[in-house]
Every structure is written in structure tokens, then in C-alpha cells.
Amino acid sequence: MSTTGTHALIKAALTAAGIHAADGPARDLPTVDGLIGQAAVLWPAPGQHTYTRASGTRSGRADRVLITCVGATARDAIAVADKVEDAIGGMRLSSKGGTLRQTLATAPAAEPNADPVRVSLAVEYSTVTKG
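The structure assignment produced for this chain is given below.
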């Protein structure tokens, strides 16, 4: 599966779960009563082609996506991360691959100079797709 296809499947799953999902850099995030609303910003990454057969040909790749979870407070950003996990954790993107697993999570932090105030944290998901 292509990185574009993987990205589209993940974005569709987040949207279906009721999460505002946008491609990074997101310029139009939702606001509620003048505060930044909860959202997930997707940053696709190229597949890592590190898996090879004994013959030297490619046997698969690691597909990854970085998702920045944002909200008005640290608790909002964490709530988005929990919703993202519920929506895509364990999701199978292809019949030839494994399930999406969270491989990285950062602590929430306020974004400097954001108006309105915005707190974000990043989570990375990956899966290995056999070729």
C-alpha cells in the first residue's frame, strides 16, 4: 500500500470516529467559544524500506504516520490522543500487513505564539506491510 493510501485510510478512520482530522500544516483548526477545539493533524512519513528477502529483494516496509493531537489544554490534547488510539489502534491497513501500533508519544506542551492558546502532543503509529 502506498503512503498516500495509508494516510487516506487513517484520516478517514479518524473522521468517521468524529475527530476533526486535518493534514499538516493545518491552518484552519476548529474553535469553540474562542478557544482552539480538539483536532488531530496528520503528518505522513515515507515508508521505511528496511525489510529484505534473503535474495536481496524488498519484502516489505514500515508505514508510519505522525499525528499531532491539539486542544486548548493539556487534558484536551490527551483526550484527542485517547480518541485517536480508540479509532486507529490495532487497525489493519492491508491484508498483507500487521496492525497499526503506537510507537511514540510525547508529553503535551503549549505551542509558542499560538493565538488562541494551543497545546499539542505528538503520537506516531506504524505498521509493517509485506510486499
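Interim note for the steering committee: The longest helix spans residues 74-88. Strands lie at 21-23, 31-32, 35-36, 39-44, 48-52, 58-71, 101-105, 109-110, 119-130.
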